[in-house]
Amino acid sequence: MQALVLEGIGQPVTLQEVPTPQPGPGQVQVQLHAAALNHRDVWIQKGQYAGLKFPIILGSDGAGIISALGEGVDANLLGQPVLINPGHHWGNNSAAQGRDFQILGLPQDGTFAEFVCVDAGQVRAKPAHLSFEQAAALPLGGVTAYRAAFTRAGLQPGERVLISGVGGGVALLALQMAVASGAEVWVTSGSEEKIARAVGLGAKGGISYKADKWPATLTRQAGGGFEVIIDSAAGPGFNDLLDAAAPGGRIVFYGATHGDIPMVAARKIFWKQLSVLGSTMGTAQDFTSMVSLFEQHAIVPVLDETFALAEGQQALHRMDEGLQFGKLVLRIKD
């Protein structure tokens, strides 16, 4: 089969002929029609990720048709259109992943290929209202956003929620799910264009996080602080989120693209009775609930640009630039 292979840190991914994987007991082989990029792929390419091994086929997100079955797998799955849950071996504790937890695309070869093999329990039926490209945009970002917003922060209809850094895949999926669930959504971004596009997707409004004293301005516009704040940046700007939070609010962060949080204003946390929560990926139940929410409300994820498989390095470069609004997708099979 053809696959995009990363040979080492800092190397471009290259299209190569590699052996087609065959399903083992309890596994299915998926003929991929589309795969989507995540920042994880860029970080692995740069060597900024734990457990590196090379050569590796990147890619955590994928959708396609089940093309072969391993021993013990239900024969009715053959030929079914599916999307893949990229989280493997979460463990028995729903509160946090276990030591054996893995994400597809490292250490196991991922979805930037014509075929991939995964455990049969990792596939879910593709929502009928989505194309393969749209379905491929859901898995990693969707389960991360769902767990952060609903499982961890407990977002309820009617609550005021702030989503930072809108434009990235997880943030946009969180926006779409929060709007569909009846929350009042506000956003931040460094781009006024991205804020305007978020409003077009149902956000009430937003503000640039580069603006001076933006929490005070935004809470005035919104009519109060935010019961839930969903963040992926952390870093020095985290204290701004403490100012934007309503008393008793919940701040959940699923990433730290701006680094660790220096000099937290602890008095704001205890005086405002805030809850600060961490979140990573999600359980199998989180994944199922996320897919069901997209089906129930016929939500269509936002795609930024679609590339051919051979153009994978161009797609990775665009993700690294950080200019995208929505998911970057590789079309593998028409």
From TrEMBL:
The record, for Pfam families, names: ADH_N, ADH_zinc_N
InterPro entries, alphabetized: ADH-like_C, ADH-like_N, ER, GroES-like_sf, NAD(P)-bd_dom_sf, Zinc_ADH-like
Q: What's the protein name?
A: NADPH:quinone reductase-like Zn-dependent oxidoreductase
PANTHER family noted in UniProt: DEHYDROGENASE, PUTATIVE (AFU_ORTHOLOGUE AFUA_2G13270)-RELATED (PTHR45033:SF3), PTHR45033
Organism annotation? Hymenobacter luteus
User: Where would I find the Enoyl reductase (ER) domain in this sequence?
Assistant: 10-330
Gene Ontology molecular functions: oxidoreductase activity
